Amino acid sequence: MIPYETFHTLLLSFILLVGLALLCLGGDWLAKGAASLALILKINPVIVGLTIVSISTSMPEMITAFIAAAGGNSGLAVGNIVGSNLGNAGLILGVAALIYPISIQNRLVKLEVPLLLIVTVMFTLMSMGGFLAAGEIGRVEGLLLLAGVAGYLFFMVMQAKRSGPMETSEIGEELADELKDPIESVGKCVILILLGSIFLALGAEFLVGSAVQIATRLGVSDVLIGLTLVAIGTSLPELAASVAAALRRQSDIIAGNIVGSNIFNMLLIGGSVSTFFPLQVERRLFVIEFPSMVLLTLLLWFAFYTERKVTRVEGGFLVVLYFVIIGLSAASQMGKILPGI
Question: Is 336 exposed, middle or buried (0-12, 13-18, 19+ CB in 10 A)?
């Protein structure tokens, strides 16, 4: 065990930044190694993108949530999931749209966004033990969420097979990056996967340990740290990829990546972690954070459905709305909103 409580706050801040860097680097190496190895084994690139790359790019959030939950910090784990979804739908999509208006594919309107709304409502209800009551995402709920991600992956793979090669262009920026210059040696792939896994584990340990200690010293809850610092930190790869895609005017893939990432956050990460470590959900999350997550999903569906694009004005609105939500969240977590809860 690392004695974080004995470290100076500046050192803790440095360790936190090192943890974020290791998470980003480890996730990138794991995704590239896994995708390249799958191609060497002659697995269809479409299936590689929809399964191996999608899952491996969610590893920073998953490992962070696992370590937090294993250490008894359920609040940080749940905050990371909810905060990442808020950041994806508000901050990341909004910033990308400000750079270049985002076109929306038909399949998102017809399939993925309605599915995201269903999953968001389902995840919220699973987290509740009654309105404004402390809930728990237990092992049964975790297994149900994992069954949902298995069904989602099966559906996506079957659809990709029916659609043929053109579907590859719709998988997302991560797949394009991983398959653009694949590694051709099995040994190098294995080494990259192992190093990526080690970096992910170290990064998550550094991030969670330092974040919890900083939260304790600042007198704020680990839920708030998970919603803000940890959630934004683990979402940095998605933010960088979305900004790069917007600058290249490849905006049609951004919305798909964000919707898919939010689905995976709840089904895969929430399901995996709660199956091993039941997650206690603080009742305060039902005041601002969970309703905001549902609201943002509804706004996305409305914007996608009505205009088939996210304009710069809408992007600016999403960014402002995100910071308003985070401000209200901070006030709520510090007991300044409905203090009796």
Answer: exposed
Q: Using one digit for the tens of pLDDT, what is the confidence trace for 155-185?
A: 877 776 676 544 444 444 445 554 567 788 8
Distance CA 83, CA 270 (A): 13
Q: Is the dihedral of CA 290, 296, 302, 304 positive or negative?
A: negative
- The pLDDT tens digits for 39-95 are 788 776 656 655 676 677 678 888 899 999 998 989 999 999 999 999 999 999 999
- Angstrom distance (rounded) from CA 23 to CA 122: 29
209 and 225 in contact (C-beta within 8 Å)? no
Q: Please, which residues have CB within 8 angstroms of residue 140's CB and are 6 or more apart in sequence?
A: none
- Alpha-carbon distance of 70 to 277, in angstroms, equals 6
Q: Is the dihedral of CA 172, 173, 177, 178 positive or negative?
A: negative
Strand partners, 281: 135
- Mean pLDDT across the chain, nearest whole number? 84
d(CA 29, CA 41): 18
What's the confidence (pLDDT) of residue 49?
A: 59
- Burial of residue 216 (CB within 10 Å: 0-12, 13-18, 19+) is middle
- The pair of three-digit structure tokens given for residue 112, joined into one six-digit string: 């993925």
C-alpha to C-alpha distance for 207 and 203, rounded to whole angstroms: 6
For range 227-253, the mean pLDDT: 78
Find, among 292, 285, 295, the residue nearest to 134 by Cα: 285
Q: Please spell the DSSP secondary structure of 146-173, one letter per residue.
A: HHHHHHHHHHHHHHHHHH-GGGGGGS-H
Predicted model pTM: 0.84
SS3 235: coil
Lookup: tokens for 197 = 């896994």
AA identity, residue 248: R
Could you tell me if 259 and 89 are in contact, meaning their C-beta atoms sit under 8 angstroms apart?
A: no
Which domains does the chain show, CATH number per domain? 4-333 (1.20.1420.30)
